[in-house]
Amino acid sequence: MSTLHSKAAYAFNQNFDKTTWHDQTFWSVRTKRDVMAWELPEWEELREHASAIKRHTITHLADYLEQFSNRLEANGVIVHWARDAKEFNEIVYGILETHKVTKMVKSKSMLTEEVGMNAYLIERGIDVVETDLGERILQLMRQKPSHIVMPAIHLKREEVGRMFEEQGISKEIGNYDPTYLTRCARIHLRNQFMEAGAGMTGANFGVAETGDIVVCTNEGNADMSTSMPHLHIVAMGLEKLVPDYASVAVFQRLLCRCGTGQPTTTFTSHFRKARPGAEMHVVLVDNGRSDILGNEEHWETLKCIRCGACMNTCPVYRRSGGYSYTYFIPGPIGINLGMLRDPAKYSDNVSACSLCLSCDQVCPAKVNPGSQVYVWRQQLDSLGKADPLKKFMSEGMKVLFTHPALYNTTLRFAPLANYVPESFTHFSNLNPWGLGHTKPEFAKEPFHQLWKEGKVK
Q1: How many DSSP H helices and E strands does the chain contain?
Q2: Please, what sign has the CA dihedral across residues 188, 135, 276, 126?
Q3: Is the whole-model pTM more than 0.85?
Q4: CA nearest 339: which of 83, 1, 5?
Q5: Residue 67 contacts by C-beta under 8 Å, 6 or more apart in sequence?
C-alpha cells in the first residue's frame, strides 16, 4: 500500500527538527496570507471575480490569443508558437544560436522547468544562469525547486553558506549571516548580467488588450535580465493570458497576498516592446494545455496563477517536503497537473492528500485543487492504479454496511479488539495506517445502542 510519495515522505520525516521547521515555516506564510485577506473586506468577492475572469479567458482562449499575438507584433515583438517541450527548446536554441549567444541569464520560470530547457541548452554549449536567488542556489547545488514561489526555502542558511564557500562566492569562511550571503550573491550575479548575451523571463500574466508581459518579482532580477542584454526572450504558457489591465489589477491584489503574505511584490514589471536597439521574442507554449482545456472534469486547473498558497496550507506538503512528490510541481496543484500530464506515471501522488480541502479555501482563483484530487481518486480503478488492498477493504466495508445484522453483530464483538496487542495489528504490510498512530479503543456499547437506551442526547 506504500507509494513513492509515502516512502519519500518517510525518509524526509527522519530528520524531525528539519521537518518541524519546514512545517512551521510554511504555516507562518499561510497565516500571513490570512492577515492580508482579513484586511480586505472584499476578499471573497476578489476571489470570485478572479475565478470568473480566468474561466472566461480560458473558454475564449483562441480569441484572446489572436488578439494578444496581433498586439505583440504591432509592438515589434517577434511571436513564436510551441506545440510541445521539444518545439519550445528548439525555438529558444534557434534564437540564441542566430544571435551567437553563449550565456543567457533568466528569471524564475516554472515553465522552463516543465520543458527541461536548462539542460537542453547547456548540452548545446549555452551557459544558462538562474538569477532568482533561490533558483541560483539550487542550480549551484544541482537541485530542483521544492516550492513554486520559494524554491529553496527548504534549505537553511548554513547549507547555503557552505555551498557559497565551495563555489568561491563567499570569502568569509563561517559567516552565514543572511545579509552577508545575499550581498555575496548580488556581486556574483551582477557579473553574470554584464556578461550575458540574452535574458529570459517567464510571465505571470499576458495582457491580451495591450500585449504586455507582466512579471512579478521581489528581487528585480527580471528587470536586470532584460535591461542589460540586448535580447529578451519570454517563456509563456497559453493559460497566463488575461483580457486587460483591469483584470491584471484583480490578480495583482491576490497573487502576492496568497503566495508570500505581502500586500504586493517589490517589483511588478511590464514589458510591452523591446527597448531601442534591442530585440524581444515571446514564445507561447501549449505543451498539453489544449488537452487540459478539453478535459471536462479538470479544465479549471488552467485557472491556477501559481501562487503556491495550496502548498503553504497543505498539511501533507508541509510535513513531507516538495521532493516527496514525483511531479516537478509539488503539493495539491502539482498532484492535479501531474495527473493531467501522465496519470499512469504520477498516480502515486494522489494519495498525498488528506482531503481536508484547506487548499480549496485559500486558492485565489478557486481552482479547488483538493476537490479535483478527490475526482482523480474516483478514477484510479479505471486507470488500473487502485491499490488492491484498498479495493478489498472497500468491498468488505460495503458488505458490512449493507447488511444490518452483520453490522450489529460486528459492533457487539468489536470491544474484543481492545485486548489485542498493538504489535499484532500495527505493522506496515497489513496496516500501514497504524504507523505513528495509537490503536483506537472500541466503546463497550455502540452509539446507536446508547441512543436507543436514552443514554445520549
Answers
A1: 22, 10
A2: positive
A3: yes
A4: 5
A5: 208, 209
- Count the neighbouring beta carbons within 10 Å of the beta carbon of residue 418: 12
DSSP letter at 398? H
DSSP 8-state assignment for residue 340: H
SS3 79: strand
| 236 within 8 A of 268, measured Cβ to Cβ | no
**CA-based torsion, 121, 123, 125, 130: positive or negative:** positive
* Grid cell at residue 154: 527548504
d(CA 2, CA 6): 6
> In Å, what is the CA distance from 40 to each residue of 27, 254, 265, 387?
21, 10, 17, 45
DSSP symbol at 438: P
Residue tagged 493531467 (cell numbers): 340
**pLDDT tens digit sequence for 102-118:** 999 999 999 999 999 99
The C-alpha atoms of residue 255 and residue 22 are separated, in whole angstroms, by 22
Nearest CA to 345 out of 321, 368, 328, 369 is that of 328
How far is it between the farthest Cα atoms of the chain?
Answer: 88
**CA dist., res. 285 & res. 272, Å (int):** 18
Q: What angle do CA 435, 439, 441 make, to 5 degrees?
A: 165
Helices 404-413, 388-401: axis angle to 10 degrees equals 100
Q: How would residue 457 be classed by pLDDT, with cut points 50, 70 and 90?
A: low
Residue count of the chain: 457
Strand 78-82 to 267-271 pairing? unpaired
